[in-house]
Amino acid sequence: MDRQYKVVHCKINGKEVEKIVDMRASLTDMLRNDYRLTSVKKGCEVGECGACTVIIDGEGFNSCIYMAVWAEGKEIWTLEGLTGPGGELSDIQQAFVDEGAIQCGFCSPGFIMTSWEIVNSGREYTDDELRKALSGHLCRCTGYENIFRAVKKTMLRRLGKKKEAELVNSQGITEYPEPMPFK
Amino acid sequence: MYDIKALYEATSVQHAIELLQEHPEAQILAGGSDVLVQVREGRRAGVELVSIYMLDELRGVSIDEEENIRIGSLTSFSHITNDPIIQKYINVLGEAVDMVGGPQIRAIGTIGGNTCNGVTSADSASTLTAWEAIIEITGPEGVRRVPIKDFYIKAKVVDLKPGEIQTAILIPKSSYDRCYGHYIKYAMRNALDITTTGCSVNVRLTEDKKKIERVRIAYGVAAPIPMRAYTAEEFLNGKTINEKNIKKFSEMVLEDVNPRNSWRASRALRRHISVVMAERALRDSIEQAGGVING
Ligand SMILES: Cc1cc2nc3c(=O)[nH]c(=O)nc-3n(C[C@H](O)[C@H](O)[C@H](O)COP(=O)(O)OP(=O)(O)OC[C@H]3O[C@@H](n4cnc5c(N)ncnc54)[C@H](O)[C@@H]3O)c2cc1C
Ligand code: FES
Ligand code: FES
User: Which of A145, B188, B192, B286 is most buried when burial is the number of CB atoms within 10 A of its CB?
Assistant: First the structure.
């Protein structure tokens, strides 16, 4: 059988792009090999760990179980798209650094992309909702609590709740000073 | 790179049918969260695939002219959960598919793939069975409709003939009108785990909310394919809502459920939780329907 190729046009990190892609490629293959976006990690490659997560048309997907040719016409964001022109970290990346939410770093790009989707939603998630939203990622180093805290604090800051963000304790729980203030 | 022989991309339902006829060995690729994983594992290595993923005409939820709820087969789990029609008429389906995998799996996994894989543990299967869904299939001969109980033939085998594609899942009005339901997924973890046993119950109460007009209960992983517990249903239909009847109904599911031993759980555990789940899901459904349990 002859090799099959196809031109795939899409928008990656805000830029219109197109390239000839091997029809057998996964989206991870295309982003890493053709676009050198190596923040997109190859972890399990079967949809279990979330290391390859990218945002497609506003929703997080595992790029390892996604055909590259399906990217046609889509808007895709990877971690590289979050940093400023001079490599400045975005608020969510900085929070991961500040909270010690990164150790070996392998899970971090995927986790940060899902977190970015969460903080961009403009919604205030409950702690349970946040845990559920992050449950498609595995981290073998941090024990998750630091990651949870980084996301929660960034979410609160984005919602203009800077004071509440400072009240998030090491377990990720918002600890109101006694007596409990009324909402 | 996936180990596949070829990928053919369909541009319409008709084109997909033609591609399947041209390449009789080819398998259908929807979201790929079963297929591509099995390609990686080697179980489906070297296959030819016909991708229907780009067919947006198969996405979305609507009410058709016969007042059926129509769910396009490619609608993803996350879109089903967030859909206002689902939330209004059959919220339990949105809740059930919100328990699949993790968020990224719910973004890619489709309800069509979840039924066409013929898997009894599929999280939409028991709810669709309990709501007597109708499967719409489009093929070389045109469109045909099959009740879900006939669509499932045996483990991993469904009623799809060569060249056929599942194009929609329909819930008739007689099935969803004034019905309220609850699904319980019993698994070891809260995310990314396969259902040990799943149970979906729904009820329609009489006008005065004192009696059960109709109850339906279905299980996943209580048999090789999703199944109803008809004996228990027949017992409770028309009965007064009280503790005695709820208990009796739950115990009667054992007349029908026939789970097996597997590495995931024993037959004994599955039988035990089948009863507990029936009771809990029934209570929740009655409560949602505005019923009161008296005595
Ligand atoms: C990490 C992970 C976790 C998972 N967790 C769960 C879970 O908790 N619960 C659960 O139920 N499932 C789970 N799954 C399985 C999977 O996500 C679902 O079964 C999903 O619904 C499959 O849909 P798909 O569109 O990806 O199907 P595909 O993989 O594309 O196809 C599945 C099968 O159906 C056939 N098919 C698909 N669409 C059609 C159609 N329209 N017409 C005819 N045939 C068709 C294909 O040929 C194939 O045989 C999980 C998968 C992964 C990778
Ligand atoms: S590499 Fe994609 S989910 Fe693990
Ligand atoms: S930091 Fe090592 S896997 Fe998460």
Answer: B286
